[in-house]
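Hello again,

I reread your note about wanting to compare the complex against the isolated chains. To keep things tidy I'm splitting this into two emails, and this first one only covers the full assembly. Below are the input lines as submitted, including protein chains and any nucleic acid or small-molecule components. They are followed by the predicted structure of everything together. The single-chain runs will come separately.
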Amino acid sequence: MAINWFKYAAPATFYGLAGKMIPYFAWPAAILFAAGIYIGFFVAPTDAVQSEAYRIIFIHVPVSILSMFIYLVMAGYAALGLIFNTRLSSMMATALAPTGALFAFVALWTGALWGKPMWGAWWVWDARLTSELILLFLYLGFIALQASIDDPRRADRAGALLAIVGSVNVPIIYFSVKWWNTLHQGSTIKFSDTSMHIAMKQALFVMLAACWLYVIAVTLVRVRSIILERERNTQWVSELEEIRAGEQL
Amino acid sequence: MNWAEFFAMKGYGLYVWGSYGMVLSVFVIEIMLVRHKRKITLQQLRLMRDAGDSQ
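Full-complex prediction:
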């Protein structure tokens, strides 16, 4: 395959490509959300132990997995930007952070609403919950640090260091239910066979795919604005149809 | 199964719908924010173009 991948690492090329790709992620995300909700509420049976409250799992688990995964992708992009000095990778890291923070927040929120009826507490200072809270603070710290530095390239480098150092927290969250004796239940999705009903598993994976596509779509929209902002003094931006032919202000 | 029973979630309605409701609002707000940011960014670039300092 003679595809020149570096071509797409140029912000000018990626801007157009991302614009074309957004609908291909956004629409399947919407369809999969609808399908996942349908399977989760109308096909999956009531849980024997947790009754109907367990249905929170179909959103809590996908969102929590992605809150960790987005962090690793963000730190990976930030590291690429730091090592190879590629502008687009740093812009991707910046674009991923707000979505990651929202996912970490939603993971904690849905967890609290599940914890209250099952454990009798909204919050406990347990290893899993505490390390997820630290993840939220790492996202917020990354965003605040980048926002506090005027020069975008310096902001990229400072943010990258924070993101890379903070990534040690992700395996701590993941393995916390094994390493410590916690209140939080063990992993729902195991690489070996799980004991879940087939419809529960289907709903979970459909929702996970939907969240994944949602994250990609929303990040692409955000990164396009970041590209425009940072490349505003370039020839290619001034020649864009949406800038050139846009209405007079 | 009727709808009232469905929404009651056997007494867990508050927790289940509180979870899904929050996720839905967060997604809707985030979509609005990224679209608004695009609109604002384009407006700023057109202002720069009209001011003639885009080069």
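For quick reference: Residues 4 and 10 of chain B are 10 Å apart (CA to CA).

B.
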